[in-house]
Structures are given as structure tokens and as C-alpha cells.
Amino acid sequence: ASVITAFLGLFARVDGLGTRPVAVDEYYFTRSIEAFAADGTPHFSGGGLYLRGLPVQMLVCGVLQVFSVPLLAGRMVTSLFGLLAVAMFFLYARLRVGILLSATAAVLLLASSWEVEFARFSRHYAPFQFVALVFWYVLDRACRTDKPAFVWALPVTGLAACFFHELGIFLLPLVVAPLVSQQFRTRLPTTRQRFGYIALAVIVASDGLFNVRLYMLFPAWRTSVMGTAIADLLRGEITPEEFGKRLDDGIVAALS
Predict the structure, then answer these.
(1) End-to-end alpha-carbon separation of the chain, Å?
(2) Would you state the pLDDT for residue 208?
(3) Burial classification of residue 105, based on how many CB atoms lie within 10 Å of its CB (0-12 exposed, 13-18 middle, 19 or more buried)
(4) Are 31 and 44 in contact (CB under 8 A)?
(5) Mind listing the pLDDT tens digit for each residue in 149-178?
(6) Which has the closest alpha carbon to 26: 110, 152, 98, 120?
(7) What whole-number distance in Å separates Cα of residue 156 and Cα of residue 139?
């Protein structure tokens, strides 16, 4: 039964990958990738940068060199990450429960309709799930083993998760967990190593490093550019493309 379930899960993840209708969010992601592949900048043709899931967009641009259909390339990348997430889930579960229970749970995840749909969805959600699972695996190993490599890998995977999805910020405070572990002095035996990791953990775990709003950095931009642009958009005096371009131009002017 497990073999049949796993086969059905794999089949559902690849069946009609390039022929299914485009979802709304996939349209935005695909248009940004087309522009990214054309001139090296993730943006919309009417204006406005699109920086969400930037590592995923870069990977899709690489796949586009072989498969020239952006939607298919995007779904192939996310489907691969969906399978990697299942494998990573199995490895993480093995740290806590036996191999039989871990394998059973992984098969159920492989055939889950929710997981299948997100794996086929050309966006950054399945890749973010994989990176988040890697973070939890590294966190567990960093707190339960005496291998310093996992301790140093923890802030790296936490930062990587933030580039895949902004919700990765909620993982960052956990990079301080090894500091309260009993094996901390064993993993990082020298004072320089311990203080170095403490400094790195404090920097990475700081919400203020990522939780900054543009209007806090550029208050004049908020009143003179953003406010007027929203009003013009609501009145129908400008198009959404013109709205995005006006915001981008305002940010450029504020930075210059």
C-alpha cells in the first residue's frame, strides 16, 4: 500500500506539469522570470521590481536555458524542491522516531493533496518549505551533537530561508538556541569561537535587521510619492503599471 501511495504521489506531482492552467500568482512569478532571463533584472514589463523568492527565480532562469517555457521551468524547479522537502522531512523525523514511522509519514506527505498542489505551484513556497526543514534539522543537530559544523551552519540556513520567503525571519531568533545547550563549550572550545558565534547569533537574530519598512527609512517618500500614487491609482488616473513605476522611481530618487 505504501508503494502504491508513493507512486500515486509522484505521478500527481508530474502529470501535466506544463499543460495545467496558469494560476494568478504563477502569472506574476512567470512574468518576472521572463524579464529576469531577458535582461538580468526581476521586474514587470510595466515597471516594478519583483524580489520575492529571488533564489528560486535564479534557479528557474538556469532551467530556462534547457526548457524554453518559463511556466514549465518554474513548475519543474518547485516540483523538485517539493520532493527534496519530503526527503528532508524523512531525515528530520528519523532524529526523533523510528525508520518505519518516518517512512510512513514521508509517504503520506508525498501523496498529500496540499503538498502536491504547492509542489506544482510555480512560486517560492515549496522551496521555502525545504529550506525551513533544513533549518530545523540543522538546529536539532546543533543542539544535540558535538559537531561545530552544525552550529555554524545554523545562521547560514536561517539567512537563506529569509531570501526564499520573508517568513524566514521567524526562524532567526532560534539561532541563539545552541548558546544555552550543554554542549556549547565542547563544540566551540576556544573563547574566540564562542564570542564569534555569539556576535553572529545576535546579529542574525535581530528582527530589526529585516523588519524595516521603506516609509521608516524614507518618510518623505511615503508622503510625497507613495501617498499621492495610491490616491491617483484609486481615482483611476494611473494604471497599476504606472503606480509600480512611480514607487520605484521614488525609491531611486530617495537613495540618490
Answers:
(1) 63
(2) 40
(3) middle
(4) yes
(5) 888 888 889 888 988 988 888 888 888 777
(6) 120
(7) 11
Among 91, 106, 49, 85, residue whose Cα is nearest residue 161: 85
Name the grid cell of 24: 494568478
Instruction: Supply the angle between the helices 24-39 and 54-63 in degrees, to the nearest 10.
Output: 70
Q: Tell me the pLDDT tens digit for each residue of 50-76.
A: 788 889 989 999 888 888 888 888 889
pTM: 0.73
Which residues have C-beta within 8 Å of that of residue 112, sequence separation ≥ 6? Answer: 9
Residue 209 has pLDDT above 60, yes or no: no
Phi, psi of 233 (to 5 degrees): -65, -45
Distance CA 66, CA 59 (A): 12
Amino acid at 26: E
> How many CB atoms neighbour CB 173 within 10 A?
14
Give a three-class secondary structure readout of the chain: CHHHHHHHHHHHHHCCCCCCCCCHHHHHHHHHHHHHHHHCCCECCCCCECCCCHHHHHHHHHHCCCCCCHHHHHHHHHHHHHHHHHHHHHHHHHCCCCHHHHHHHHHHHHHCHHHHHHHCCCCCHHHHHHHHHHHHHHHHHHHHCCCHHHHHHHHHHHHHHHHHCHHHHHHHHHHHHHHHCCCHHHHCCCHHHHHHHHHHHHHHHCHHHCCCCHHHHCHHHHHHHHHHHHHHHHCCCCCHHHHHHHHHHHHHHHHC
